[in-house]
């Protein structure tokens, strides 16, 4: 009995220790095995001192203290003032001694209000390391950055880092409902426990804020874009206030989604017409009420007249009328309106890809100063691959923010390992040519192309109450990578993968090298086994889980996968060239030229822009049919290779996370085959051709794949 109890106790202790690894994200702070680093630390830092006493600087100091203790195995000496040399000093500009302020004067001119300096300085002939910025939040960013140097085995011998975020709003969009279900959420239920708020503060809220601060995220939209007006009632606002209070010391502002019809639903008005004086007043009062409780409230995110959501068009008004009315309401308090451009009308099914541009581009220059238009990365909808959205660069007088989807609605949910920063980078570095060569999407987003003051990047969150936050241990890397790219949209995805792996798992090069490659390749793998050569939106309908290229019976044409691939006896693909829907014309002339012709259109986007015959010769000499089939097979092979790499990583990873990833990769392998077999069997009906050699025979019939139903697939309301 006793020994049984002992075993049980032992098991539960080791379980919780391991489970914590899942929970701790990239903030593991495992003791470093690097003796050079440890001795470098000892010879450069004797004590740490904070010259400031705000809540945020206390958090920063605790992070340093705990982080260093865990990484180096002994607690650093905490000093109350700068004495002698080799101090690690943290303080914001205003709390520095006048001497230090003077020493760093030039450096301060190189950073913005959220930027930080980490410098080795000689001060009164004594060597010190200083982490500073213009305010305490910036210092907190600096502290996390300094800790990352230690986590990733970087030298701290001669530090001279100046770093500032390139965008103002770096924000997560939670598509979380008030009943805690999460639209397109695959990591459990919502973190926000509205029932227990405001009195019960879950430790997770603090850990969430901390994780975000560690990568520079400074905003969170708590609620779904398909909004519920109740969030704007006093009963809920006090809960929102409680969350805002938790997040504030971590530099995170709270935003809410505004349901356009809220004045009717909770305000008892007869209309929500944005030109109606009572409606205008209602929103003004609502904003004042919110700001009284949450003085640093960020503002509203709005989905209007899209997929059935109410909006200004219900009253014969337009997006500008709606956005500007709300902008006026929050302007006195410094709030912003993030107005989404994700619209497609039920009245014009000619080409859904053209609609956001057609509707929004003519509004350029018409929005109020505190409105930013939030545009998805591509013109359809968060597909494994889309060409960049034609609105980027096409609205020089309007700030545009990027909307990426971190949750994997169309990329295998949280069971597929796909490293999204690779996808994000591809979009950000696309050249729009809208202001000549070099007009990259990143420059639209960071405001440098057209000198916009208001800038931002949003990511649709993949976070839920799963123990590991994101469902798949590697999906944590997508949260991390999103934050890093929001801070600096020019970062390379390999750098991000490298950092994340070191902070999350191990610094061992034998682990880093192959696993980093696996992450980088994972994006192309998912494109290959789901939607190669520019195919898109052929997922099964509603829940978007698995393949459904055959679906053709939904009431709106653009809801059907058949609308997107247009496969027939002659070929496959959506003709968006000048001889087709002419969607290409929404791009700059240089890109029109590239996309419009079969010869110059990149093969990765071929079937996005062209309907191509089955016998068309690809660049490698294969026919389109053979090439398509081989790419599906290639995707499956790539997943097998990922499994190989992971199996060899066993000795570098704790058993729990190792096994989780192993099981998930097995699912991914099964599902990659499912995608390949289902799509090829279906398209084969049109091509009428045999599978080329090298492509495995399908294991089931098309009828079998069509019969699969998933009534309880997650994330689908
Ligand atoms: C689609 C999702 C839907 C969202 C919509 C949006 O399927 O759940 O509400 O995007 O972004 O991709 O508004």
TrEMBL record:
The active site is at residues 307, 381, 409. Residues 1-19 form the signal peptide. One of its GO terms (biological process) is glucuronoxylan catabolic process. Residues 470-695 form the Glycosyl hydrolase family 67 C-terminal domain. It comes from the Bacteria. GO terms for molecular function: alpha-glucuronidase activity; xylan alpha-1,2-glucuronosidase activity. Residues 150-469 form the Glycosyl hydrolase family 67 catalytic domain. Residues 25-146 form the Alpha glucuronidase N-terminal domain. It catalyses: Hydrolysis of (1->2)-alpha-D-(4-O-methyl)glucuronosyl links in the main chain of hardwood xylans. InterPro entries: A-glucoronidase_C_sf, GH, Glyco_hydro_67_aGlcAse, Glyco_hydro_67_aGlcAse_N, Glyco_hydro_67_C, Glyco_hydro_67_cat, Hex-like_dom2. GO terms for cellular component: extracellular region. Keywords: Carbohydrate metabolism, Glycosidase, Hydrolase, Polysaccharide degradation, Signal, Xylan degradation. It holds the Pfam family Glyco_hydro_67M. Its EC number is 3.2.1.131. Belongs to the glycosyl hydrolase 67 family. Homodimer. This is Xylan alpha-1,2-glucuronidase.
